[in-house]
Design brief:
It contains twelve helices and twelve strands. The longest helix has about 30 residues, at about 1-30. It is elongated. The relative contact order is 0.09. The two termini are about 35 Å apart. The chain is α/β, with parallel strands linked by helices. It folds into three domains: about 1-210; about 215-305, Translation factors (Elongation Factor Tu (Ef-tu), domain 3, Beta Barrel); about 310-440, Rossmann fold (3-Layer(aba) Sandwich). Helix 1 crosses helix 2 (about 40-60), helix 2 packs antiparallel against helix 5 (about 75-105) and helix 6 (about 120-140) runs antiparallel to helix 7.
C-alpha cells in the first residue's frame, strides 16, 4: 500500500513537471514551427528563444506561489517555494542573456538604449528588465537592506506584474512572432492564464478563507522566547492536518492583505478543532506575538507541507531539531502519543541552553508515553552538565543512531546550519537520501 501511494506521488509529480515544461517551452514552438523573418540570423533567433523561455518561466511563478495543494503535494510547499526562487534566477539569467546576445550579435541595436529616441517596444523591454533587476536584488538582499517582510511582499507582487506586463508589451511591439492567428491565440492563452492565477491568489483564495475565521483562545508563553497560540474555529468544522504540517496565519486583519506568515502546527493532529501554532520571537511580526489578546480573530491558509511521518512509513524515526524547529516535531510526538504509536523514536534536540529548551517538560513527560529517547545538545551547558554539548555533527549523530539505522526515517527541522550539518552527516553515514526529509524555516 505504501509503495503504491509513493508510486502515485511520483506519477503525479512527474505529470506536474511535464506540464510546467510544456508551458515553458510552448512559446519556443512559435520560433521552431515558422521560418525566421528576413534579415534575422541564428544568434538573433537564439536570443529571441531565450527571451521567450525566460518570460514564460516568469509567468509560471504565479503558479508556483499560488499554494495549490494538489500541485504541491508530491513535493511539499517548502520545496516548491525553494524551486520558485531558484528558477526565478534562471529565468532572469535567460532574459539578461537575451539582451546581451542581441547587443553583441547586432551592435546597431545598442541604439535602443537611448530611451528618448528608442521605439516604445524597446522602452517596454528596458523597463521590464529594470523591474526584474530590482525584484532580484530586493529578494536576495531583503534582510541586508533591512526591508520589512510586508512592504517587500507588496513591492515584490507589483514588480512581478510589471515585469510580465512590460514583457508582453515588448513582444507585441516587436511583432515578429505574432503575425498568424494561432500565434496570437497562444500568447492570449498564456496571458489569461497568468491573470487568472493572479486573481486566484489575490481574490478567490482570500475570499474562501474569509468565510472560515478562527479565534485565538490563549497566548501561552513558552521557554526559548517562544509563544503558543491556541485557536478554535468560528462557525466551521476546523482544519484537518497531518502532524508536521504548517499554515499561513493572518491575525486581526483581512485575509486579502499581505500580513500573513507561515508557522508549523505544534498540536496533535487528532485535535483539528483546537490547533496550536508555536512561534519564536525573532523580529518584525514575531516580536508582537506575546501582545496578542485572546479573542482576536485570525485566518488560516493550509494545511501545507509534506514533513509528515505517514509518507515515510518507517519502523523507527529519528528527529533532529534546532531551536524552534522542534515545533512540527512536537506535533508529530503529540500525535504519536495520542495514537499510542509503539515505534522507537529518537529526538536529537539542539538548544542554546538548558533554560531555552522549548517544551522541555512536556518532552520529558512524553518519554513515559512513547518509546522515545531524547538527546539534548546544548551550546552553553550549565555547570555539571553530563549530556551532549556543542554542535550537531557526524560523530554526535553516529553515537545516537538507532538499531538498524538504514531502515529508519530521519526528519530534520531547524536553522540551516543544524539541518545542513545533520543531512551531510547522515548521508556520510550511508543513510539513503530518500529516507531524509528536511523542513526549512525560510519559505517566504
Amino acid at each position: 500500500m505504501a509503495t503504491a501511494r509513493a508510486m502515485r506521488r511520483y506519477v503525479v509529480g512527474a505529470g506536474w513537471v511535464a506540464l510546467y515544461l510544456a508551458v515553458t517551452l510552448a512559446p519556443l514552438l512559435v520560433i521552431m514551427l515558422t521560418p525566421s523573418p528576413p534579415g534575422r540570423g541564428f544568434w538573433t533567433e537564439f536570443s529571441a528563444a531565450l527571451g521567450f523561455a525566460g518570460l514564460s518561466m516568469l509567468g509560471l511563478q504565479f503558479a508556483l506561489t499560488s499554494r495549490f495543494r494538489r500541485a504541491s503535494a508530491p513535493y511539499g510547499m517548502d520545496l516548491v517555494l525553494q524551486f520558485h526562487r531558484q528558477i526565478s534566477l534562471v529565468a532572469a539569467g535567460l532574459i539578461v542573456a537575451h539582451v546581451a546576445i542581441l547587443f553583441v550579435s547586432r551592435p546597431e541595436t545598442l541604439e535602443l538604449l537611448n530611451v528618448i529616441e528608442a521605439p516604445w517596444r524597446a522602452r517596454f523591454g528596458l523597463l521590464g528588465l529594470l523591474a526584474l533587476v530590482v525584484l532580484i536584488v530586493l529578494s536576495l538582499w531583503r534582510v541586508e537592506l533591512r526591508m520589512r517582510y510586508e512592504p517587500w511582499r507588496i513591492v515584490h507582487g507589483l514588480l512581478a506584474v510589471a515585469i510580465l506586463g512590460f514583457g508582453a508589451a515588448h513582444v507585441i511591439g516587436v511583432g515578429h512572432y505574432l503575425e498568424l492567428f494561432w500565434k496570437q491565440v497562444l500568447w492570449v492563452v498564456l496571458a489569461l492564464g497568468a491573470i487568472g492565477l493572479l486573481v486566484y491568489i489575490r481574490v478567490a483564495r482570500p475570499a474562501k478563507i474569509l468565510h472560515q475565521p478562527w479565534m485565538i483562545d490563549e497566548v501561552i508563553e513558552e521557554r526559548g522566547n517562544a509563544w503558543t497560540l491556541r485557536l478554535h474555529p468560528v462557525d466551521h468544522p476546523g482544519m484537518r492536518f497531518e502532524p508536521g504540517q504548517f499554515a499561513w496565519i493572518t491575525i486581526g486583519r483581512s485575509p486579502f492583505g499581505v500580513h500573513e506568515h507561515p508557522f508549523s502546527f505544534s498540536s496533535s493532529a487528532d485535535e483539528p478543532t483546537r490547533p496550536t501554532l508555536t512561534i519564536k520571537a525573532l523580529g518584525d511580526f514575531t516580536n508582537t506575538i506575546g501582545e496578542i489578546e485572546p479573542g482576536t480573530i485570525a485566518y488560516l491558509d493550509g494545511p501545507h507541507g509534506v514533513f509528515i511521518p505517514r509518507r515515510m512509513d518507517a519502523p523507527a524515526f529519528v528527529f533532529v531539531a534546532g531551536g524552534i524547529g522542534i515545533t512540527p516535531i512536537m506535533s508529530i510526538l503529540r500525535t504519536f502519543a495520542d495514537r499510542e504509536d509503539p515505534r522507537p523514536l529518537t529526538l536529537i534536540y539542539a538548544s542554546e541552553s538548558w533554560e531555552a529548551i522549548t517544551f522541555r517538560e512536556e518532552i520529558d513527560a512524553l518519554t513515559e508515553r512513547l518509546a522515545l529517547r531524547v538527546v539534548h545538545v546544548l551550546r552553553d551547558p550549565p555547570d555539571g552538565w553530563k549530556g551532549e554539548s556543542g554542535y550537531v555533527d557526524r560523530e554526535l549523530i553516529e553515537r545516537h543512531l538507532p538499531e538498524h539505522p538504514e531502515s529508519a526515517a530521519y526528519l530534520l527541522c531547524g536553522p540551516d546550519p543544524v539541518t545542513e550539518a545533520a543531512e551531510e552527516a547522515l548521508l556520510d553515514l550511508g543513510i539513503p537520501h530518500g529516507q531524509i526529509r528536511i523542513e526549512r524555516f525560510d519559505v517566504v
